[in-house]
Design brief:
alpha+beta, seven-stranded mixed beta sheet, 11 strands
Length: 407
């Protein structure tokens, strides 16, 4: 039995960046031997075990062959005869197909170290094209390592293009797709994820609503970058620079989908794009079964982001409707995330990345003014039921008028 550290832990150590997860592969062992040493089995598809003390995952060396469609369409074979090289060749990228023993002796049969130095994301073997999930994974690695100068090797991008055209991407489950998308959006340069998907034709398959934004112009006075797709990528980049949570980044990606529906004869204006985009945002949310907080924020930002930009001009009654839509009294955090998404949208414009956004503090102040309306005095006056609701609304409107007058 020989045990090797494999994959990301080896890659990141060689890159000199912190290692978070460690994966191990065991060569020359049987399931019975692993159990005898106290390892606990997990996973139904192939033999993976948890270390009795550390809890880290140890997998028996295995081979795989394509047996069906999609990410799960593989038959695995694990036995003591499977070599380390045979196990490594089934991995996606050369930089993930290296192993080291307990003395840090490197096993690198597919030249991963060379590609690390060349800053290339390159597939290990033609079997790469058998797994559609790898399109998303490579795009995610491009987002993670873009700051280090990594690019996708042309021949790997070509295989990704073939996969995108094959119909295999449609076989991915929403859960697997969302896992990769959500992780990619939380990388330092999530816009690279979208760029790579677009470069290989996968964006058109997975998110045609986002792909449709590229080539659609906007008014130069508000959008010096002009192209709606380029603007969306810049907004996403700003969200990452400002360390926004996943829900905000997801909303940033989808906020302008309605502009993809504007007839060409109306360009560069996009009248009512906020409302037109809601059905598209809903479709993307459902396609990937995004978590509820991400879905809700994306819909609200899509509908109200222009309200955010015009906050200082809004009538008190419109401001009150906005606050009610977000339920700021019970869910203040969601309104904070809306403000953040609006600010990222304002900054995601060429040359305006450092602009101030006074609307943010103004909206926070408005929410505070509405929240300070006390219910108890109204109860003491005998208001109840629907009448109480109307009385609270009147008092909040009064508070917002005073706030606007003094702002």
């Amino acid at each position: 039995m020989r045990i090797y550290k494999v994959g990301g832990a080896v890659r990141d150590r060689l890159l000199g960046i912190p290692v978070t997860d460690i994966d191990w592969v065991v060569v020359g062992a049987t399931t019975e031997e692993m159990l005898a040493k106290g390892f606990r089995p997990v996973g139904a598809d192939f033999p993976v075990f948890l270390h009795p003390k550390s809890g880290e995952e140890y997998a028996l060396a295995r081979t795989e062959r394509k047996s069906g469609r999609g990410y799960g369409g593989f038959t695995f074979h694990a036995s003591p005869e499977v070599t380390l090289e045979e196990d490594l060749i089934r991995r996606d990228l050369t930089i993930n197909a290296m192993a080291e023993d307990d003395q840090q002796n490197l096993t690198d049969p597919y030249h991963g170290q060379r590609d690390l130095e060349a800053r290339l994301l390159r597939h290990v073997s033609p079997a790469f094209a058998e797994d559609p999930l790898r399109v998303l994974r490579v795009a995610r690695f491009a987002a993670r390592y873009a700051a280090l100068g990594f690019t996708v090797a042309p021949e790997t991008l070509e295989l990704m293009r073939q996969l995108s055209e094959s119909g295999e991407l449609e076989a991915l489950t929403p859960e697997r797709s969302w896992k990769e998308i959500s992780r990619a959006l939380m990388e330092d340069q999530p816009q690279m994820f979208i760029e790579v998907l677009r470069a290989c034709g996968a964006l058109k398959v997975l998110m045609p609503e986002v792909d449709a934004l590229f080539g659609v112009p906007q008014p130069p006075a508000h959008h010096p970058e002009i192209d709606t797709g380029a603007h969306t990528l810049s907004v996403l980049q700003q969200a990452a620079l400002h360390k926004q949570p996943l829900s905000v980044r997801w909303a940033c990606l989808l906020h302008d989908l309605g502009k993809g529906l504007t007839p060409e004869e109306e360009w560069p204006r996009h009248i009512a794009h906020e409302f037109k985009g809601l059905k598209l945002i809903k479709a993307v949310n459902e396609r990937f079964k995004a978590p509820r907080d991400c879905q809700e924020l994306a819909m609200l930002v899509g509908e109200y982001h222009t309200h955010g930009h015009r906050a200082l001009e809004l009538k008190p009654s419109t401001l009150l409707e906005l606050l009610q839509s977000f339920d700021v009294y019970r869910r203040p955090q969601r309104f904070e995330e809306f403000i953040a998404a609006c600010e990222m949208d304002a900054r995601g414009r060429e040359g305006l990345e450092q602009r101030s956004y006074p609307q943010a503090d103004y909206l926070r102040g408005a929410a505070t003014a509405a929240r300070t309306v006390a219910v108890q005095p109204l109860l003491e006056k005998g208001f109840k039921g629907p009448e109480l609701g109307e009385a609270i609304k009147r008092e909040r409107l009064k508070a917002l008028k005073a706030y606007k007058d003094n702002a």
